[in-house]
Amino acid sequence: MEQPEEALAPALAAWHIEPEKQWYLAEYLRALRNLSMFEELLSHKAYVRGGGVCRYYLAVAEREMNLHPSASLNYFLETSAIDDDSSAADACIWLAILLQNEVSGDSIINLAADAVEKAPSSEFYRCVLAENLARNGMLEQAREQIHWMRLEGYTGYSYWQACAELASAEEDDERRIWALRRARQNRNCPDTARNLGWALYISGRDALRDGDLVYSRERLQEALQTGDSTEVFVVKSDSLLNLINEFENRAAVSD
Fold it and tell me: What pTM, to 2 d.p., does this model score?
């Protein structure tokens, strides 16, 4: 489902077979979003019930189409204030994601914290909260959220993404790469491969600048194996490896 061109037809077929299942509709809408087919996406708004990820995709499409006011954004705003904890928590977390680049970091944290308070057992909500705490320099609070999830036995994709975000904020490249490897093991798709590949490339590049050729080669070779030849991090990693090879060949001739 991470290849939108290939995902579109089977997602649509699955939804047609069981149209009552919003998850199938969500996968179809996700493929439309990834293909930037926003008009087609909005044409399915009548089939979206309640909030959740389907409503989120509608909100993204409305934003891309410059529809103001956004009916879906207003839905989340109104639902976040109701008494139903599960619906309000869902609305808060999608608002935290939708408004990421539009409001202050404190506001995003407050939305995510409200979602966690209303639905404390949700791994996804806590991961969104932990990531935003880490991004905003609130490292101890982020550690507390991750520690709670670890004790509860959460080891899914979102958990490892949150761990990687915290490690990045702590400038711990080794632990970040380790967490991104775990995230990819949980969900092997282009996005997780890309996240890991770039982290490996940057680590290898920095090691090369520091003169550690052995470590740099190790990281760059792993980056090469993480994506295909069209990925920018693969091209850059291959270029640096060629430089290392050229340097070592010249050094061998000099000796």
Answer: 0.87
Cα–Cα distance measured from residue 31 to residue 138, given in angstroms and rounded to the nearest whole number:
35
Rg value, the chain, Cα = 21
- Over residues 57-85, the pLDDT tens digits come to 999 999 999 998 899 999 999 999 998 89
Of 29, 20, 79, 24, nearest to 56 by C-alpha is 29
Q: Are 95 and 111 in contact (CB under 8 A)?
A: yes
Q: Residue 190, by phi and psi: left (phi above 0), alpha (psi -120 to 50) or beta?
A: alpha
CA–CA distances in Å: residue 39 to residues 1, 32, 35, 97: 20, 9, 11, 22
Amino acid identity, position 255: D
Q: Which residue has the tokens 């609130």?
A: 138
CA nearest 115: which of 137, 131, 134?
131
